[in-house]
Design a protein that fits this description.
By secondary structure, this protein is an all-alpha fold. It has helices spanning 7-20, 24-32, 44-69, 74-94. It starts with 6 loop residues before the first helix and ends with a helix. It comes from Subdoligranulum variabile.
Length: 95
């Protein structure tokens, strides 16, 4: 199937594909299927997601230790506080 666009239409379509972070063919297919296409997240999103995942893993380990031993040391609480502060800074800096 061939579709013809004016230069303006093509430029608009190309711009929307770039915003969505998609190539043109999958973008058009998604539109035809009725999908709502959202803009691609910024590059910093993946870094933030990785950092939050690592922080969550560390907090989970601390929680596991606390549940297994029935107590938490001051250093473990300090570490948890530090992780929560790191998480807050990651989120705040990404906004």
């Amino acid at each position: 199937m061939t579709v013809r666009f004016t230069e303006e239409e093509y430029a608009a379509l190309k711009g929307k594909c770039e915003i969505a972070g998609m190539k043109m063919e999958p973008f058009v297919r998604a539109l035809v299927e009725g999908c709502r296409i959202k803009p691609a997240p910024p590059d910093s999103y993946n870094k933030l997601r990785q950092q939050l995942s690592a922080i969550g893993n560390n907090l989970n380990q601390l929680t596991h230790i606390a549940n297994a031993t029935g107590r938490v040391s001051a250093s473990q609480l300090d570490r948890a506080q530090s992780l929560l502060e790191d998480m807050w800074h990651c989120v705040r800096d990404s906004l």
